[in-house]
Amino acid sequence: MGTQIWRGKHVVITGGTSGIGLATARLLAREGARVTAVGLDDGHLAALRASTPAGVLPVAADVGSRSGLAAALDDARGQHGRIEALITSAGIVRPGYLDELSDADLRRHMEVNYFGTVHAVRECLADLRAARGTITCVSSAAGFLGVFGYGAYSPSKFAVTGFAEVLRQELRGDGVGVTLVFPTDVDTPMLAAESPQKPPELRALSSGDHAVSPEAVAVALVRGTARRRAVVLPGGQARLLHVLARWSPGLMRLYVDTKVAGVQQRLARSRN
Questions:
Q1: CATH no. for residue 43?
Q2: Which active-site residues does the annotation give?
Q3: Which 3-state string (H, E, C) describes 4-54?
């Protein structure tokens, strides 16, 4: 990466045992950071523990539980010291038509994607203020653009986007940088798990065929955070969608509505 900014810093990454979080943990460890990778107590955590890269401390916690996360972070401080950077990458997604999603689905997305971000920030904030550190929140293109079939996921990522923008304003005077990352489809275990569940309309909008690698997102994230950029858009598709959503929302809606209508017309013909 050509920078010494991460050397010796304690960086906490939620969702750090798979996908974007794991790629970022590995990259930062190579940059000399002391990384705490927070993940669920599952196969991903076990695999990381079995092959722990130098400088990476895997710890188990469900970010939806503030008390459980607080205990894990206390353990991390005991080994790596004060937290100087936070990257919130933990997330879940269950696509589906809204009337097929349960109340529990909707709540769980908010608990993990939104409150998981809030809990991590609140538990690290005193350290980050003292260190004049950085907060990086991984949202999604679905966090600035509502997407058919993401009735649980998209609202939770919009909430992350709004929360991070408030943080950026509130913490600027404290010298804490806040960066928002807006990936599109990323080639991760989460994408592989959700793809079979996608309604046809969502597959037309987000097929996953051109998914970017988690390593590419990690490079953009780390570079953007080091430069204290407010927004990071990994890849050309993310940049295009962000421009259209911001400057040509009518054109963006027309494109989405046309795509969805085309799929629904084909489905109607196949049923007749």
A1: 3.40.50.720
A2: 139, 153, 157
A3: CCCCCCEEEEECCCCHHHHHHHHHHHHCCCEEEEEECCCHHHHHHHHCCCC
